[in-house]
Write a structure and sequence with these properties.
The chain is α/β, with parallel strands linked by helices and 175 residues long. Helix content is 31%, strand content 28%. The chain has a single domain, classed as Severin. The chain has helices spanning 2-5, 17-27, 57-65, 110-127, 144-155, and strands spanning 14-15, 32-39, 44-52, 73-83, 93-103, 132-136, 165-167. The longest helix has 18 residues, at 110-127. It starts with a helix and ends in an 8-residue tail after the last strand. InterPro entries: ADF-H, ADF-H/Gelsolin-like_dom_sf, ADF/Cofilin.
């Protein structure tokens, strides 16, 4: 009965070869500001959009949301911000960190949501970096202020205790 209801469907999602190459060009070589990923019909994550280094966070969000209210996407953004934290892994000053946004709007169907949840695990395993991960279901969630706040929170944590930060969508019940 679970299979008929879709409750135990398992998706195998793999990451396309070019994803790692372009990810390295964002992270290490600073050639691009961001990448937008989608899952092809053959369940392979591929690059949909590459943002040039001069692009800003608003352009990133616009490209991330272009898929519409019924589809999901992933985005990697090389975020730069000021941090005045003392005692963490960084000294005060300007820093950069990779932000991984999992865009899965409320309007997406359940199958698409499950597919992208499986894709998030696959993408995170391949990237292997300690990114800040924001899971967003509406346009108000992945704001620049929130992204910077989450990055700064990691900067003040001793390196030995640092783990990937997964930020869940804000729930209406919590307010």
């Amino acid at each position: 009965m679970d299979n008929l209801l879709g409750n135990s469907i398992k998706f195998h999602v793999s990451v396309g070869r070019s994803c790692q190459t372009f990810y390295d060009q964002v992270r290490s070589h600073k050639l691009y500001r961001y990448l937008i990923f989608y899952i092809r019909t053959d369940n392979v994550i591929d690059i949909e959009k590459i943002g040039m280094r001069r692009c800003n966070y608003e352009q990133f969000l616009d490209d991330l949301h272009k898929c519409g209210a019924g589809d999901c996407r992933f985005g990697i953004f090389d975020i730069e911000y000021a941090c005045d934290c003392v005692g963490g892994i960084h000294s005060p000053g300007y820093h950069d960190r990779l932000l991984l946004v999992h865009w899965c709007p409320e309007g997406a169907d359940d199958t698409k949501k499950m597919l992208y949840a499986a894709g998030l695990k696959a993408l995170h395993q391949i990237l292997g970096e300690r990114q800040v991960i924001i899971k967003a279901t509406d346009l108000a969630e992945p704001t620049l202020a929130r992204a910077i706040e989450e990055c700064r929170a990691l900067d003040c944590v001793p390196l030995s205790t640092q783990v990937p930060l997964v930020v869940q969508p804000h729930s209406a019940e919590a307010t």
